[in-house]
Specification:
The protein is α/β, with parallel strands linked by helices. The protein has three domains: 163 residues, Nitrogenase molybdenum iron protein domain (Rossmann fold); 203 residues, 3-Layer(aba) Sandwich (Rossmann fold), CATH 3.40.50.1980; 37 residues, no CATH class. The chain is 46% helix and 16% strand. The protein is built from 17 helices and 14 strands. The strands form three sheets. A six-stranded parallel β-sheet has the order 1-11-10-9-12-13, with helices on both faces. A five-stranded parallel β-sheet has the order 6-5-4-7-8, sandwiched between helices. Helix 3 crosses helix 4, helix 3 packs across helix 10 and helix 16 runs antiparallel to helix 17. The chain is globular. It starts with 9 loop residues before the first strand and ends with a helix. The N terminus is likely disordered. It binds nicotinamide-adenine-dinucleotide, L-histidinol (HSO) and zinc ion (ZN). Nicotinamide-adenine-dinucleotide binds next to helix 4, helix 9 and helix 10. L-histidinol binds next to helix 7. This is Histidinol dehydrogenase. InterPro entries: Ald_DH/histidinol_DH, Histidinol_DH_CS, Histidinol_DH_monofunct, Hstdl_DH. Its EC number is 1.1.1.23. Its cofactor is Zn(2+).
């Protein structure tokens, strides 16, 4: 194995498949785990005990903002549009339309079925009542995330939607929230915002489910709230951004470098990876990263991410997919000729981008699918956010007398196998009643 400590390490040769998989251990799994856990636990305990006053103190401590109130007045939300240019509003509007179109197709369908005559089974759909949306804002405000959360909540027809974001909340966040019919907005961020929505405070209501991405502290807070409460769910672990690119010899190193950097700039814990069987693509990409980084801002953040990232050279293209499936990335980009032919090799990914003309930024902002996606390897068991995450399915069944008679033998036999007499009698009392008539 060869390790070159220059911006982003490259690994090649003499390295077994399992060693290559270990190289992809995520930054959050490598270090700091215990500290993150106990810091977040402390924040959750404080909010649970002291409510709003803890939130106000954390706003000052973490975000250096002295907040007198937490809820943004409706007048401030209404005024937000005045401060935005037409160009900004048009971009938001055009992204909104595409995201809305894609999500409208996701609605759960109702089921109406009679497996045997007289046994009527349906599935009805109900929106979640109270939902809490977290919009990141530590590094930079993300109005695109407001749409990714607000649009599916709106389509699902959730009754009460609240939004939390770190102070100071920018006009573009307020404007985009209003576009999604969200008017209950609180200026609080980080783990403390998740705690507020999970426990409830004097001014912030406890919700049924918390949605939204965030940094390592936000994501850990969601994990702990999910564990500490029985009646507050979370959407997923949508933590620091991850991008894994698989490239063949036809790929363009300029595009690969640009895509890797686009996620490196999200935060110091972003995980950026290139896997390719082609050594020229690997080295040219690294040089390109070096060229492009000079024109970017947030260099410290990017450098930190690149340090965690890596370029791995494989023996062949199929090995790339093996490593990627094992890693289960948030974003998977396929920079291979006829990329569509390789979909069959992919088992785990939050979202897939096919070919050289599908940059991840397109999905981040405007193509339509959701950008709130599972990280930390959870794309192996969780899907990206959608309308159905804001809905519940409830099954309904209604049997006629004939239907019950037809099903009775099966139920009685199974109740006897499980030695549950009361279950059996719930059937026999009725069957005897019907027969006596
Ligand atoms: N997976 C996804 O779907 C997805 C989508 C969008 C963004 N993201 C990720 O969201 C993250 C946004 O991060 P961000 O930092 O810009 O904003 P953020 O809103 O997630 O976090 C900012 C807050 O973190 C808290 N914080 C900062 N330092 C802390 C510390 N030492 N201890 C405890 N709390 C602390 C503060 O309260 C601050 O307000 C990025 O990592 C980005 O990659 C992920
Ligand atoms: N790439 C992020 C998800 O990992 C989403 C985002 C928002 N704005 C820009 N990008
Ligand atoms: Zn992004």
């Amino acid at each position: 194995m060869n390790f070159d400590n220059y911006l982003i390490p490259i690994y090649w040769d003499h390295c077994s498949l399992s060693e290559k998989k270990i190289l992809l251990t995520r930054p959050v799994h490598k270090n700091k785990n215990k500290d993150i856990y106990s810091n977040v636990k402390h924040i959750l305990d404080q909010v649970s005990q002291y409510g709003d006053s803890a939130l106000i103190q954390f706003n000052l401590y973490f975000d250096c903002i002295q907040t007198k109130y937490l809820k943004i007045p409706s007048q401030t939300i209404n005024n937000s549009k005045k401060y935005l240019s037409n160009k900004t509003k048009q971009a938001i509007c055009s992204a909104f339309n595409n995201i809305h179109q894609f999500h409208q197709k996701q609605y759960f369908s109702e089921i109406d079925l009679e497996p045997i005559p007289g046994v009527h089974c349906t599935q009805i759909i109900r929106p979640l009542n109270k939902v809490g949306l977290y919009v990141p804002g530590g590094t930079t405000p993300l109005p695109s995330t407001v749409m990714m959360l607000g649009i599916p909540a709106q389509i699902a027809k959730c009754k009460r939607v609240i939004l939390c974001s770190p102070p100071p909340i920018s006009n573009i966040i307020l404007y985009t929230a209003q576009l999604c019919n969200i008017t209950e907005i609180y200026q609080v961020g980080g783990s403390q915002a998740i705690a507020a929505m999970g426990f409830g405070t004097q001014s912030i209501p406890k919700v049924n489910k918390i949605f939204g991405p965030g940094n390592i502290w936000v994501t850990e807070a969601k994990r702990q709230i999910n564990y500490r409460t029985t009646d507050v769910a979370i959407d997923m672990l949508a933590g620091p951004s991850e991008i894994l690119i698989i490239a063949d010899e036809t790929a363009n190193p300029i595009f690969i470098a640009a895509d890797l950097l686009s996620q490196a700039e999200h935060g110091p814990d972003s995980h950026v990876i290139l896997i390719t069987p082609n050594i020229n693509i690997a080295t040219q990409t690294r040089n390109e990263i070096y060229n492009q980084i000079k024109n970017l801002s947030r260099i410290d953040i990017i450098n930190n991410s690149l340090k965690h990232g890596c370029i791995i050279i494989t023996n062949n293209i199929i090995e790339c997919f093996d490593i990627s499936n094992d890693y289960a990335p948030e974003h998977l980009l396929i920079h291979i000729k006829n990329a569509n032919n390789y979909l069959k090799y992919i088992t785990n990914a939050g979202s897939i981008f096919l070919g050289n003309w599908s940059p991840e930024s397109a999905g981040d902002y405007a193509s339509g699918p959701n950008h709130v996606l599972p990280t930390y390897g959870s794309s192996a068991n969780t899907s990206g956010l959608g309308v159905t995450d804001f809905q519940k399915k409830i099954s309904v069944q209604e049997l006629t007398q004939n239907g019950l008679i037809k099903l009775s033998k099966t139920i009685i036999t199974l109740a006897q196998i499980e030695q549950l007499k009361a279950h059996e009698y719930a059937i026999t009392h009725r069957v005897n009643y019907i027969k006596r008539k």
